[in-house]
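User: Hey, my collaborator sent me this sequence without any context and asked if I could get a structure. I don't really work with proteins. Can you help?
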Amino acid sequence: MPSNTRPDQLHFVAPIEETPLVAIDSVKAEGKPSNLWTDAWNDVRKRPMFWISSVLILLVVVVALFPGLFTQTPPNNNCLLANSNGGPTEGHPLGFTKQGCDIYSRIIHGTSTSLAVGLIVTFLVALLGIVFGAFAGFYGGWLDSVLSRLGDIFFSIPYILAAVVIMSVLSAYRNVWVISLAIGLFAWPATARVLRAEILRVKNADFVMASTALGVSRFRILLRHVLPNSIAPVIVITTISLASAIVAEATLSFLGVGLPTDIMSWGNDISQAQTSLRTAPQTLILPSIALSVTVLSFIMLGEVVRDALDPKARARR
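Assistant: No problem. I've predicted the 3D structure and written it out in structure-token form, which is a compact way to encode the shape of the chain:
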């Protein structure tokens, strides 16, 4: 082999063991294969915001399921007008409402109602959004046109305004299920739009074309291949939707068209306390803090999950 070196030129070649090529070319055969969900978990578990929001959400869930672990005071049975807007006393650390009810007990027992509305609305929004978005994005054509226009109609109506109208008409049937349906039936278009856009991106991937060539039915391809690879943005939106639903319930109760006053919720407590803001601000501030902390926890969790499921966001950090 011809050489361009001069006869008097010394030529040194480092042994391969002393070069970085060994480390670069080495492969760990025992390593587990990586995927989106594994990378996302490895990312979120290193972030303090994930653990803070998770602990707060877990605490809210435990309070909602087992209120008796946190208070033994009945929320409505021991209401005395003599204690109206009173401050903290022994056994009543947060004071009393205008009706003389224990604020701490009402906040604890109202957690289950607010969380139940959030979960029901979130389930309904996710169900309708996935069904409409998946079929519109995957099948296209006239079905996409019909479902997209239907989504545009619902999207053009603010769901709070629609819920106010529905709850006003159904004032005799106001309960957790009715208010959840009133909110959820008009809050799904954003989820459907996001999923439709993601499915339009995924359905032209090579693995989808390979499944089609193998004779797999289109509906099976949608369920087994396209939808699982498009669901990540929906998970993020669903997490944030739960917080929005809790706020929507509180807003409707504050406007007087939400849950009846005999059903304990943070929205009802805030609504009933607005007349006592000057004389007893704690009656409004304390349930508002419980509402804000819960909503903030779900929003924080949604932000962390969104960044973890977005490879571009991980690359920027």
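In plain terms: The mean pLDDT is 82. You can pass these tokens on to your collaborator as they are.
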